[in-house]
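REQUEST
  id: r-88c1
  op: predict_structure
  target: Type II toxin-antitoxin system VapB family antitoxin
  payload:
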Amino acid sequence: MCIKWLVSTQRCNMRTNIVIDDKLMADALSITGFQTKKEAVEEGLKALIRLKKQADIRKLRGSLEWSGDIDEMRTGK
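RESPONSE
  id: r-88c1
  status: 200
  body:
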């Protein structure tokens, strides 16, 4: 059984009805400890965006030039 519910974002007040698998949502709430479905969905979207940005950055590997002292940067000396 799936449920329909309302998602509201703070930035643009977008509202949408979505159908999410009950087991998937229950697992997400249980694993994360979030109290609301909204929290779980918003954090899931943030994680998805973060992963996509990381993948885009990895595509640049080997194509950028860098110079500096990594040990100095790490120690601040």
